[in-house]
Amino acid sequence: MKESIVPQSGPKPPDSMVRLESLTVRYGDRSVVDGVDLSVGAGETVCVLGPSGSGKSTLLRAVAGLAPPAEGRVLLGGHDQAGVPVHRRGVGLMFQDHQLFPQHDVAANVGFGLRVRGAGRTERAARVAELLGLVGLAGAGSRTVTALSGGEQQRVALARALAPGPRLLMLDEPLGQLDRGLRERLVVELRSLFRRLGTTVLAVTHDQGEAFALADRVVVMREGRVEQAGSPVEVWSRPASEFVARFLGFSNVVAATVAAGTAHCAWGAIEVSEGAVEGPAALLVRPGGVHVAATGAPAVGRGRPGADGPATGLGCVVRSRTFRGDHVVLHLQPERGPALEATCSLRTAPEEGAAVRVAIDPAETVLLPPSM
Amino acid sequence: MSDAAPVPGPPPPSGPPAKLRAGAGPRRFTAPALMVGPVVFFALFFGYPVAAIVDRGLRPDGQWELGQVGEVLTDEGIRQVLWFTTWQAAASTVLTLLLALPGAYVLARFSFPGKRVLRAVVTVPFVLPTVVVGAAFLGLIGRGGLLDDLWGLRLDTTVWAILLAHVFFNYAVVVRTVGGLWSQLDPRQEEAARLLGAGAFGAWRRVTLPALLPALAAAALMVFLFTFTSFGVVQILGGPGYATLEVEIYRQTAKLLNLPTAAVLTLLQFAAVAAMLGVHAWTVRRRESALRLVDAAATDRPPRGAGERCLLAGVLASVSVLVLLPLGVLVERSLRGPDGYGFDHYRALATTETGTFVVPPLEAVGNSLRIAAVATLIALVVGGSAAAALTRGAGRLVRGFDAMLMLPLGTSAVTVGFGFLIALDSPPLDLRSSWLLVPLAQALVGVPFVIRVMLPVLRAVDDRLRQAAATLGASPLRAWWEVDLPLVRRALVLAAGFAFAVSLGEFGATVFIARPDEPTLPVAIARLLGRAGEANYGQAMALSTVLMLVCATTLLALERVRPARSGEF
Amino acid sequence: MKRTSWRTATLALPVLLGTTFLAACGSESEDDATTAGGSTVTLVTHNSFEVSEDVLAGFTERTGYEVRVLRADDGGVMVNQAVLSAGNPQGDVLFGVDNTLLTRALEADVFAPHRAEGLDAVPEEFQLDAGEWRVTPVDHGDICVNYDRAWFTEAGIEPPQDLEDLADPAYRDLLVVQNAASSTPGLGFLLGSVAEFGQGGWQEYWQQLADNGVRVVDGWEQAYYEDFSGSSGEGDRPLVVSYATSPPAEVLYGPDPDIEEAPTGVSTGTCFRQIEFAGLLEGAENPEGGAALLDFMLSLDFQEDVPLQMFVHPVREDAALPELFTRHGATVESPLTLDADAVTEHRSDWVDEWTNLVVR
Known about the structure:
The complex is a heterotrimer of chains A (about 375), B (about 575) and C (about 350). Chain A is of the alpha+beta class and about 375 residues long. Chain A has helices at about 55-65, 105-110, 110-115, 120-135, 150-160, 180-195, 210-215, 230-235, 240-245; strands at about 15-25, 30-40, 45-50, 70-75, 80, 90-95, 170, 200-205, 215-220, 225-230, 255-260, 260-265, 270, 280-285, 290-295, 315-325, 325-335, 340-345, 355-360, 365-370. In chain A, about 20% of the residues lie in helices and about 35% in strands. In chain A, the strands form four sheets. In chain A, strands 6-7-8-3-9-10 form a six-stranded mixed sheet, sandwiched between helices. In chain A, strands 13-12-11-14-20 form a five-stranded antiparallel sheet. In chain A, strands 15-19-16-17-18 form a five-stranded antiparallel sheet, with no helix packed on it. Chain A is globular. Chain B is mostly helical and about 575 residues long. Chain B is globular and about 65 Å long. The two termini of chain B are about 25 Å apart. By secondary structure, chain C is α/β, with parallel strands linked by helices. In chain C, strands 1, 2, 3, 4, 5, 6, 7, 8, 9 and 10 form a ten-stranded mixed sheet that branches. In chain C, strand 1, helix 2 (about 55-65) and strand 2 form a beta-alpha-beta unit. The longest helix of chain C has about 35 residues, at about 1-35. Classes of the chains: A alpha+beta (about 375), B mainly alpha (about 575), C alpha/beta (about 350). The interface of A and B includes residues 92, 95 and 112 of A.
């Protein structure tokens, strides 16, 4: 394989840097990755999102060549990678727990990839310094890696993965072990860094916030299969299934029957778009679309109030309230149907135990395929 | 690795901070208090007897005769012995490492059916007495042996026989010491290196090898120590043309009763062994720090691809040739009777009709089990408290203590046996004719194994767990019962089993102690082999097979008990 | 379930160990009790000592003494241990010191005198300490070259008769001997050659043997079972240094105890005589019991038990030999012997010289 590991010297710029064609990986009889098709364009950041056991880490390992595919192909830069050993694929992988080499110091860790490629001492030192500067650890080269904090280890791992100039950088739960504040800051830093360097990135995470902040495109996986792929906005606004909706944190999902532009569910009849497929479905109501009013008063919301109908009059009891800084999340027990989650402003939030009436804003609903 | 098996986060590099370990927490015994027992045991049953016999040699009539030292050291024959001892040990060590490292890798990284059996099988030779192994090897590489039958190749009375037998004995040391650590190294370290562009071998060399180096050094030193002090193998397989320092000490003491020369040689061997143990203690200390280890259970997987399957097959083949074949020869000969194959020799073991023994040989099995049980108990108590002391203390004194307790492994059995005779000869310590002497001598050899097994596990018990128990209202004893015991229980059983197996096969110390008429298995085998007649030979082989099976069963049972984070064995 | 069995196992282990310990202690205290009663006599001996249970029981019945046996690895180790503990012995009687080691033991004042009953029936040639009576001869055996009958019949040549024959090119590459430095028969064979050719002549004889392809192995076991063709059939050499009583042993432990002729024979001109002695240990706790045991060892009961137990000949002329011995055993008319003092004085020099000559 004459292929170089440096991204810019590919024979002709392929439209997609990574392409997976019906990729299947099995452990024993179990298909951990099951017929996945996926492509990542050059310079694009794609984030695979899924719960534990959805096969997303295995997907990365298959691309890296650490897990052999049972079926399907992995193409990098348009070339089938079957038979190409790990170290000739020119991909970088940042492990979940970094896997820094404890016997080497920071500089030796970052320079490892250059060293095994036979780069000269001066060239290596310059590149290591450049990368340490890039990740904000200038001058830390002689420190031992075991003495670093979690965030610092993260940065060293990133610098190490970037040092050989991989054509694809893969991140396995890149921020998983860090605390919240650090995580949010690093996401922003990473995104701008990848933009600046034009790096092609394939990341996996179980944290939707991380995925949406980092990715140009999000791929949701479930039990080894791709459940939905699209831009963060698309996925967020139109989850493709109840699984995706629930995984994104939406809990207001109820079985419904659609007839003549109206979805009939336990919470009442809710207007949906004209073109909706008739028949059984699942209905998602965003918490922001559940408007709360004290009993007696008409439910008033920011959106267009629903037409006269039973929905305006759904009586609920406030089970609990959770402060989220600028708003409050209410957990409601309706008089019929499953529990409802609503958000409202701090000012208008009713007390726990209060009886309220809710109205559902059709604009904040999504019609999903019926659940099994 | 799927998402379902999360790997624990990096533990602090060397356990909880030192301050936490030393000061706080419920603590009932201090290191010095725990050291008293082992030190007294060691001084009484090792230091004193050995000193007494050396003293008798160097100060025969109350006068130091140190001129002997120079005389012995300049003797041409002794110099040859020293040179041979050293180079054969070095060669054996290199050969053992070369042959056993692939085995260590396969056992550490691959999961395959029969892995436990394999690990147990390769350990059987380590605990077999040399009489038995010598007979087995002669059946393989000697006159009329398998190689002779097939290719007319004879290796007995060549140095190759010695080297091969050393590999046979010490294969397990490398597999268990190096493989034990290897299985606890995170395989993703190598993967990370490969993703950064290192080839498979390059990744191993740059990432795994440095991490393994302390274990490799420790294993190499142990093999060197065992082969440097090799006795039975050299005598039986090497023939009269080869002598190690240990053989020479035996000859000077047991045959010629030339105590002055023996004393000088004993001191010489002591110096060499002490130097090795010093280096060993140092490597062990390095091994226990600075490495992040993971659960061994999570690091193995079935072999993939032709290369890995070939490697596995190669290791299985080499184990078959190096270990199974010699053991198989024993079994084959035990079954071969005058009228073809059968169990005649085994049946004969249970009777006294053939007249060799007043007690039937099978009673030797009972004797062996009983003596080994007592030896195990002593080794557990002494080794256990020594390990506990080593866990609690640090510093030069404690490290010296660790190395000291290993000294019996490198001391000639005849020195200890004769030392017992002249040192423990007056009341209240007239143990010369006591049945206890044999288990005591065996415990000397068992103690180092107990320590090596227990130490890493005891060190891994996080003191904060005891603190947590204490805050929940547990008394120190209760905290030990609830926290320590469950964590070290496996190691305790493993240590007991190892000490037991080692005692079962112990031959050297036993034969140099005049003992009550209760032959152990190895002694009974030696006695059977010492008589003419085909039936005696067959019965010796049958009894050897019995011993081998007892050892193998013990070891196999231990495989079920092996803690995920075990130490050297 | 798995946990439970675990717990059981770990609890069972200390219990098991504890019980065996107690059991062992129990048997020990019994011993102590009998020792305290003064009715035990302790015999220090080597690995080859055997006696029939009923014969020993007869001794206990007659004298009231229980015999406790302490064993060392071999005769040499045993004698050295006795020398080291001279004056404060491990037991009351020592059995198994032979004529090659006798002087070493006598010089170290290991034994106290006792003239055993029955000594009158022992020929004078065995009484090496007559007059002082520190040791009592008990048995004798001969270290001789054994030959594989079938091999010589097949080859159509006569088996060798004496030491000279072994250097004859007709017997080239046929003999296997033991290391004189580590093996009793090996040493005995070397001493036999010294007796035959003299202190200045044996070296030349061994040079001839070496030129004639003698093989040296470390121990008797290996020589007899691995290299000799006449016993287990594994070996390729039809001549081996062993004992005059090996042929009867081959018959007794062979496939057919009623066989007409033993599969091996003895070259009676190659035999070196070994005499085993017993003696009362100086400083013994129970000298009376020891003396009684010595007397017993010269009794006809014990003497007639000796052949089939230890495969040696009794020293008493009037002791009857078992049929196995009279049928298959060799009669050695004039064995080679050496003065015990000369052996003590020169033994290590001879062995060193021999080692340099033959092994290196």
